[in-house]
Amino acid sequence: xxxxxxxxxxxxxxxxxxxxxxxxxxxxxxxxxxxxxxxxxxxxxxxxxxxxxxxxxxxxxxxxxxxxxxxxxxxxxxxxxxxxxxxxxxxxxxxxxxxxxxxxxxxxxxxxxxxxxxxxxxxxxxxxxxxxxxxxxxxxxxxxxxxxxxxxxxxxxxxxxxxxxxxxxxxxxxxxxxxxxxxxxxxxxxxxxxxxxxxxxxxxxxxxxxxxxxxxx
Length: 217
Ligand SMILES: NC(=O)c1ccc[n+]([C@@H]2O[C@H](COP(=O)([O-])OP(=O)(O)OC[C@H]3O[C@@H](n4cnc5c(N)ncnc54)[C@H](OP(=O)(O)O)[C@@H]3O)[C@@H](O)[C@H]2O)c1
What we know:
By secondary structure, the protein is α/β, with parallel strands linked by helices. 40% of the residues lie in helices and 24% in strands.
């Protein structure tokens, strides 16, 4: 597959790039800082400099051209103010949905968050983040794209366990970024995972089995 990853220098994204490249996929990672290009190349991905806040849909569509899937793994980050929750976490994701529609890229996988809620309290902090993420997820569901919405709990940099708990309400918990990346890779390689929205934390179930169980439900 030909896969574009937004937030290409992110911690999850770089692990996903390596997994996908090792599996033989063509991977492009969108970065805003050209100094990050070498890290993507080391992970097996082609860097594309594209600031999601600066570029409009026309420019992004032209830059990306055709692809088989988009993964939105970008985020303004916990140090950012409320404004950037809207310009990155919400608008960045929505711009790429429009690019996907225009460029006939049918598949769209988003790294959302446990607790994402379009009606979350717009408190200028974590509530605003959850609201922006929830509204982006809602737009994706309404987009007509073959979406998968992955909502991890608290992210850690622990080694991957390869075992997760995935479902509509898994309770609070944590998960290594490496396991989130493995779930994203598995979802991309599983067309039947289109239409799924699920929470994700560490658990007992091997990743492929956890995804198969979600599809069977
Ligand atoms: N932290 C948690 O516990 C948690 C829990 C659930 C979900 N999440 C979600 O998971 C996502 C991925 O996690 P992570 O740890 O991999 O995040 P990360 O390392 O912070 O990666 C986010 C990436 O987004 C990029 N970005 C920011 N603004 C951008 C812009 N305007 N244009 C293009 N790219 C931009 C950043 O680029 P720069 O490197 O240039 O800054 C960064 O590389 C988070 O963003 C968050 O929404 C987090």
